Amino acid sequence: MAIISISDSQVNGANQILVADTNSKIPAKDGSQITILNASNVASGTIASARLDVGTTANKLVQLDGSGNLPVIDGSLLTGIVSATISASDPTISTNPSGGVGTEWLNSTSGEMYICTDATAGENVWTNVGAGTGNIPPPRTVFQGTQYGYTAGGENGTDVIDKFSYTSSANATDVGDLTGGGATNAGSCGSGSHGYCLSNGAPYPGLTTTHVDKWSFSSNGNATDVADLPNNHNNGPSGHASPEYGYGAGGVPGDGNYISKFAFANEATTTDVGNLTYGDHDSGHAGASAYDYGGFVWGGYPNTNVIDKFAFASDGNATDWADITAAMRDMNGQSGLTHAYSAFGYTSGYVTDIMKFPYASQTNATDVGDISYQRGLSSGTSSTTHGYSAGGTYSGKHNRISKNSHVSDGNEVDVADLTVARSHFSGTGTQI
């Protein structure tokens, strides 16, 4: 048996009783063989990293590296983390994020980063938060297509809905028919998912109806009659669109100064919301739309140089905004990103001008290019980079589709053909 010695002072040797110091603390001793310690009673001090069981396998403590970063480890079970979709291409308005608003999208090709700021199915808005420019779509580009242009109707009741590519020079294809035997001098507009022909069903000269026809961009096919405009715009209204509403402005009979609108979410409800300043914005006037500013209407019969503007943000009458280059009619309208464009026109004869004016200031239109041959009463549509003129009439009807740049301006270029030569008709573009 070991002999235990007791001293009245602190002892440190083998086989001696350990005596607490004057602060009632155990002196510094080797405690490697102490067991069953309650760790909750350890109130201070540190444990050397070398003493921790660290690693990236099961039941290990995960340790930050020398840069303060987590090591490569499976994080699939982590929650509450907003992750980005990584793709070689940009999102589109039809990219419906499961995470809704706030979803991140990284283009691994360009390095651009987008945040979903509007998660409306089929009409999503992706805002560019990277170093580049360009939202998808910028709110104002609801009026421009990125993939296809559509034309609808034509003189003497033509009912054809044609579709043509903005990204190739392929000829148009017939993808459906309007209701009521066709439309003459009708206006068109588009939501993110559908096209609308305003005042359809009026084969010239029987100007008696106010139909609103609707067709799908994704499935194509024949149109359906979904509403009637509240006033008789049945010959020559210009078509306009905000993100939420379609508009018809001007047209005969009467003084032709009506502004009407309908909600894309409920097309059956149409209302008269104001008047144009020029009472005879009759057949042959043109129009454009700009998200931040509203709808623009210019020209018409009898010939006028007036540019009217009406607001999308609130209902009310239009104001006299500026002037086009000459009093004329029979031109088409194109909605650029920053400017409205107009091609063709009739004064005392057909002109070959392409003109533009800015949305943001009350500045008169200027001549920025020429068309290659005279014609009027063509259909105008717009991509994000070009305006397109389809068909028209001068010494007979035409089937030509031409384009003019909205980036560098200049003369038009012939790119394709319609399925049917015609005039007195309308058009719109789509992102689908």
Protein described:
- With about 425 residues, the chain is mainly β.
- It folds into 2 domains: about 85-135, no CATH class; about 140-430, Kelch-type beta propeller (Neuraminidase).
- About 0% of the residues lie in helices and about 35% in strands.
- It has no helices and 28 strands.
- The protein has strands at about 85, 105, 115-120, 125-130, 150, 160-165, 175, 185-190, 195-200, 210-215, 225-230, 240, 245-250, 260-265, 265-275, 285-290, 295-300, 305-310, 320-330, 330-335, 340-345, 355-360, 365-370, 380, 385-390, 400-405, 415, 425-430.
- A 4-stranded mixed beta sheet has the order 1-2-3-4, with no helix packed on it.
- A hairpin with an 8-residue loop joins β18 (about 305-310) and β19.
- It is elongated, with a radius of gyration of 35 Å.
- The relative contact order is 0.11.
- The mean pLDDT is about 80.
